[in-house]
Amino acid sequence: MKNYKRESNSIYKYTLANLNLRSSKSTSGDIITVIPQGSKVEILDGAEDWYEVIYNNQRGYVYNQYLSKTKYTWTDVFLRSFPTSESNSVALVPDKSMVQVLSSNGDWDHVIFNDKEGYIFNYFLSDDGNPPGGYDFEYFKTDMTRFVNDNNIKSPTNNLITTDLENKITYIFKKGDNKLWILLYKWSCTVGKPETPTIKGTFYVTGRKPYFGSDSYRVKYATRIRGSYYYHSVLFNAQGTEIINDTLGAALSHGCIRLAVENAQWIYDNILDTTTIIIN
């Protein structure tokens, strides 16, 4: 594996344990080096359960369960030296800042912000950088069309995607001539399991991949929600020739939202970048 150099201005995460940097997205891949716990790695790409990273100018893959979790502040908040509001302030973290969560201790998260380590009251952190309760969710689980129109949801494109994590349903809307949202499709989906939940909040489509996977599986028609979270197909074998798990309506993914192949392909082919996504 050759050494790699890259410009900065990237996303960084931190290792939560000693972690093998591997040559491929597989636990059987060659070990390039062992990254010590607490090390900073540069993220090149992510897809569900593996990240492609650079550590000490070496490029490889790590399993994402052992990396810090990305969260965002939705207001200015103090980074504290201990998990109590009486402790000293380490830094002021501005609104909409990205922090890396190392662990949680009740109402406080142990985080790193701009290479400074401390604690933030986790009420002020979210997956999307928006405060809780931004919408009226009264009809979210029972009448999604009413939810999106009553809340006057905006999207930069003529489409809108919502996913109800409890009922495990993804909805596709199209903007009507009267500027109201019209429901096009309602699809069963599989979402993140409790230990690797799907992110919640308001997001915007940021690209797509025809497929990704490892030596044990492949998924197709992946449309990025944020970071390593995607809408994509159910699981295929590593060659992409045969479906090996077509379960829908369950909570068992690593955080991505799985759809029937034809539904994932419809999003991949038709939904433009910057389209609004609401997940709750």
From TrEMBL:
The keyword Cell wall biogenesis/degradation applies. It comes from the Bacteria. Pfam families: SH3_3 (PF08239), YkuD (PF03734). Residues 159-280 form the L,D-TPase catalytic domain. The keyword Cell wall biogenesis/degradation applies. InterPro entries: Cell_Wall_Dynamics_Protein, LD_TPept_cat_dom, SH3-like_bac-type, Transpep_catalytic_dom. Residues 7-71 form the SH3b domain. Keywords: Cell shape, Cell wall biogenesis/degradation, Peptidoglycan synthesis, Transferase. Pathway: Cell wall biogenesis; peptidoglycan biosynthesis. The active site is at residues 232, 256. This is SH3 domain-containing protein. It comes from Intestinibacter bartlettii.
